[in-house]
From TrEMBL:
This is Nicotinamide riboside transporter PnuC. GO terms for molecular function: nicotinamide riboside transmembrane transporter activity. Its main location: membrane. It is a multi-pass membrane protein. Pfam families: NMN_transporter. The chain crosses the membrane at residues 15-37, 44-62, 82-107, 127-144, 164-183, 195-213. It comes from Psychrobacter piscatorii.
Length: 243
């Protein structure tokens, strides 16, 4: 199904859209920074990393290899530093994984580009969908055990404090689901499968809940900004996939 507005945003209005979206993202993140943080050096550093992340995700949605994966390497490296300096060593795993996928992606995408130099996305076969579903199921099943093992060495990814969302949903399991889905979505993106954006839409929704529950409002704002981009990315990749 073609949607004229999205055709324009991903076509003749693409540069205008990118600029407007980026400016809105900067304003939203800056407002969150001023209103919800203590303006420490670490806070300033993460704000800078967040701006790099904006460039990364919008470039990925428009299939720009060097901008997307290049800035992705910068953003994820920054996130690793943020987590390490804040003592959340376990949370370094996801950005570390994403960093190396971007390193791989910058070479892999360069081999699959159209005449304009943009990456060509591909459709997922039934086998890929099944493998992805199996990966998610196995990841969810094994994560608590792996997390406990890491915790025994002082590197727990998610702390289980028995807190609940809406009084009955485990905050621990919301985090687990978000972590496993984000890893899966990142892998699907680097491998050029357009369905990755469906996963990112789900991931962003779950991370929004996590961030609101933990009072991390700047991350919540970032998640909503990313969510808008995810819908545009979904349309752009599927349109380019069809040719």
């Amino acid at each position: 199904m073609r949607i004229q507005l999205l055709d324009n945003i991903t076509g003749k209005w693409s540069m205008q859209w990118i600029i407007v979206w980026f400016i809105c993202g900067v304003i939203a993140l800056s407002a969150g920074f001023w209103l919800t943080t203590d303006h420490t050096t670490l806070d300033w550093f993460y704000l800078a990393v967040s701006f790099i992340g904006l460039i990364c995700v919008v470039s990925l949605s428009f299939r720009k290899n060097v901008m997307g994966n290049g800035f992705g390497m910068g953003a994820t490296a920054g996130e690793v530093i943020v987590q390490a300096t804040s003592g959340a060593v376990g949370l370094m795993l996801a950005p570390l994984f994403n960093f190396f996928t971007h390193v791989y992606g910058i070479f892999y995408w360069s081999k699959h580009t159209d005449p304009d130099g943009d990456m060509i996305p591909k459709s997922a076969s039934k086998a890929v969908w099944l493998i992805t579903a199996a990966f998610i199921i196995i990841g969810l099943a094994l994560f608590p055990t792996v997390n406990d093992l890491l915790a025994s060495y002082g590197y727990a990814v998610v702390e289980d404090d028995n807190s609940l969302f809406l009084g009955f949903i485990s905050f621990f399991w919301i985090n687990v689901i978000a972590f496993v889905l984000s890893i899966t979505a990142q892998a699907a993106m680097i491998l050029r499968y357009s369905f990755n954006w469906w996963l990112w839409i789900i991931v962003n929704f779950v991370w929004l809940i996590v961030n609101l529950m933990s009072g991390n409002y700047i991350f919540a704002i970032q998640t909503m900004v990313y969510q808008v981009n995810a819908f545009v990315g979904l349309y752009e990749w599927h349109r380019s996939e069809r040719g």
